[in-house]
Amino acid sequence: MLPQDIKNYASQFVYQPVLENAGKLKKKFSKFIVVGMGGSHLAADIIKAWHPELDLIVWSNYGLPKLNEKVLKESLIILSSYSGNTEETLDAFSMAAAKHYPMAVIASDGKLMRLAMKANIPYVKMPHENIQPRMATGFSLMAFLAVMGEKTWMLEAQDLAKQLHPAREERRGQDLAKRLYGSVPIIYVSAKNAAIGYNWKIKFNETGKVPAFTNFVPELNHNEMTGFDAKEKTVSLSREFRFIFLKDGLDDRRILKRMSVLEKLYHDRGFKVEIVLLQGKNDIQKIMNALILADWTAYHTAKLYGVDPEQVPMVEEFKKLIER
Asked: Is the pTM of this model over 0.70?
């Protein structure tokens, strides 16, 4: 991942996806099952965070979720794989095709795209850019909205091309990366913004090549935080972590209070906490600005450790081993 990829991110929202075989969708669906792994389902997570009222399930596994047959027949199953060659997603395609469930495909190329064309089902062929799937969430978001038939949401997303200014966030990300150097990030968010925390974690893992973890308030107040109630014999286990609180001013006031109290408890125990305020005029701007900051922070984390911020060699090594 090059700095230019982050700087050009806003331009992805200019993308006008074409839904081929759209006539095969006999109705506008209100229920969706998104099948995708890694970066190929991040846009669906974002849509769910943006519009939590949407009846959308994200499935990251082989096959399909164990749901009532009626539910599966009434839902549009969207199979997403940026490369088009993801093993788990191809398996889900085979199962859905055998059952004649409503289907659509989002991919840039690969076997999944060829299967969609051969089966004459609706599909969007995304631009085949030389970027990792985690960096294609703009393209992917627009493609999902096209498949879902959400034209109003698409117009709102298209405005991001003018509203986002990724280059302005680099300094903040660089400074945050310096403060996090030598520690393991743990990202805390509200339950509403769990998808943002998960995206941050993935950016640290794949781009920064460091372990990272995420959890959400209020659930973590009932379990995880007690693991950091450091005592003499356990304090050494906790010292390598640094906590990033992603705060949204529109979160429930009780959630914000919980975050503030937890911040104090961690400070009292000698832990360092970073506060990041979500910024933007609306929910989708807040989400995307937060993800851009995550990209810059992870990129500069990689540079500080002297690792490649783009490629994911362990993933490729793993794929080769399971194909034997």
From this structure: yes
